[in-house]
Amino acid sequence: MKQRFIFITIALLIIGTASIIGIYYANRPSISVSQLSLQIASTNTIIVNNDTTLVRQNGIWYSRDDDFYPVNSDIAEKLLNDLQQALTQSISYKDEISEGGEIIIKTSLPHNIKLYFNAVNGQTDEMIAVYNSEKYLLRGNFQIPSQPYQWFIQPLIPLSDNNISEIYGIDPSKFSFSQLFFYQATKQNDFKDWDRHNLKIMTTDGIIVNLTVYMRNHSYWASVDLQTSVMPTLAAAEYVKNNGFLYSGWFFELPQPEGNRLFSSEAQY
Fold this sequence. Notes:
Layout: H1 2-27, H2 33-42, E1 45-48, E2 52-57, E3 60-63, E4 69-70, H3 73-87, E5 91-92, E6 101-105, E7 113-117, E8 123-131, E9 134-143, E10 164-168, E11 185-186, E12 195-203, E13 207-216, E14 219-228, H4 234-243, E15 251-253, H5 256-263
Antiparallel strand pairs: 1-2, 1-6, 2-3, 3-4, 5-9, 6-7, 7-8, 8-9, 10-12, 11-15, 12-13, 13-14, 14-15
Helix pairs in contact: 2-3
């Protein structure tokens, strides 16, 4: 009889505990859409397709995968703003999520916000936001770089070809520096023993760009040194002063065709 009483007591305790847990989860405070929207706006980390991690520090976005080289903050901020606005007008989503791209928004909440999308040429008008087990359909005009290097400010040397007065080290008719982009950046100087080719670009307003191209086994990297002429314009002097940090101590991977054309150009000056 005593043993039966113990079994009944244990059973009642289990049932009571299960009821309490059920009541808690049924009435637990849910995370509101407005709270998720604020989390998106305040995030300092965006992970795209598990191969690009963007980190915001002091209002500027950097690529953690590229020794924290700056990326185009306008692109990152616009994406967050578009997501934030779309989330406030989202609807509940019940279907299965199809395979595609993934963005993780790190939050201060217990879970991160995951976004799933199928983009064409870096554009999509629908995304699925998932927080914990809740899914939301977001509609809007979302611009997502389709390649990691498209997060950077491109081109590498943002000078108008019409503003170039002199070029040494390459035939100016065979190359457009305004189209020169780069894949990645690093602070690691592993190019001391690589073959190199030097180029010099001078602009009409007094900017001097010293470009060194490094080559080994069909891989091409470059370093850039910005200077001014003896009498630069005020705008040119300000440009060199404000943008030197984008180049000083950095090395940039170039696409093979462009790197080969630069490296194989006419004799060094």
